[in-house]
Design goal:
Strand content: 15-25%
CATH superfamily: Aldolase class I
Radius of gyration: 17 Å
Distance between the termini: 25 Å
Number of domains: 1
Helix content: 40-55%
CATH class: Alpha Beta
Shape: globular
Largest sheet: 8 strands, parallel
Structural class: alpha/beta
Number of strands: 10
Number of helices: 12
CATH architecture: Alpha-Beta Barrel
Strand order of the largest sheet: 2-1-10-9-8-5-4-3
């Protein structure tokens, strides 16, 4: 099996895209009531415009066994279209529990990568890191308004906690399968994390509904070769229309954001 970072790079090059489409199928917001059909239609409409899909497990778990069956179909559909899947699960627990979580995420759900919380320390991440071909994407400076309550606290001679997480991520990355989550809503912090982790994949949520600014985050988040920034939009794409044309509207929204990212990337001197 190819490593996640290689799948990510190859898909980005193939589709000329650093766009990640987030799949947050919340029934009250959906134009139809079948989660699997909804998510699969979004995937089919945007697969050639994305470098990754990011289903958020919470929206599937909320619908019980039906939702979990829909998650299985969502992941299968994305992988059949040749696009890597980042399962947004934010796992983090004592090592024995983490081992079970890792087995579920990678062996059962067959995700290419997963988001994890570093709050319990490196030993809680080891079971995920042992899956060398899979990506382990560590929460660092998240996009929500309250993230600074803890993530910006000064530790170690004034270094912010999120910066310490980035430094530790370099240590955890011995097998080349670690990434970070940094929100597009904080481009200055994103630039700082990129300076600490110059070649690491960074998942950058917060574009669209959360108000992240595309140009600033692209300039802050790319590596030296114009890659490894994974710019996620969820609600801004999948709920672009509440009507029967929801898949077509999602494609239009995804195409616009992909092109916006590429325009800034081109202006920085990076070509496909």
């Amino acid at each position: 099996m190819a490593r996640f970072v290689d799948l990510l790079d190859a898909t980005a090059q193939k589709n000329q895209s650093l766009l990640c489409v987030g799949l947050d199928p919340w029934l009250p917001s959906m134009p139809i009531t079948d989660i699997a059909t909804f998510a699969s239609a979004i995937i089919d409409a945007t697969a050639d415009l994305a470098c990754a899909f990011k289903p958020n497990i919470a929206f599937y778990e909320a619908e019980g066994f039906d939702g979990l069956r829909a998650l299985q179909q969502t992941i299968a559909t994305a992988k059949a279209r040749g696009v890597p899947v980042i399962l947004d699960a934010k796992r983090g627990d004592l090592a024995p529990s983490a081992q079970a979580y890792a087995k579920a995420v990678f062996d059962r759900w067959d995700a290419d990568a997963v988001t994890v919380s570093p709050y319990m320390g490196g030993d809680s991440l080891e079971p995920f890191l042992n899956y060398r071909e899979r990506g382990v994407i560590v929460l660092c400076r998240t996009s929500n308004a309250g993230s600074g309550d803890l993530q910006s606290l000064a530790v170690d001679d004034g270094v912010a906690l999120y910066e310490r997480v980035a430094h530790r991520a370099n240590e955890w990355n011995a097998q080349g399968n670690v990434g970070l989550v940094v929100g597009a809503t904080y481009p200055d912090e994103l630039a700082q994390v990129r300076s600490i982790c110059p070649a690491m994949p960074i998942l950058i949520p917060g574009l669209g509904a959360q108000g992240g600014e595309a140009e600033a985050s692209v300039r802050a988040g790319l590596d030296a070769s114009g890659m490894r920034g994974v710019f996620n939009s969820s609600r801004g794409i999948i709920y672009a229309s509440k009507g029967a044309d929801y898949a077509d509207a999602a494609r239009t929204a995804a195409l616009g954001l992909r092109d916006t990212i590429n325009i800034t990337r081109d202006a920085m001197g990076h070509t496909w």
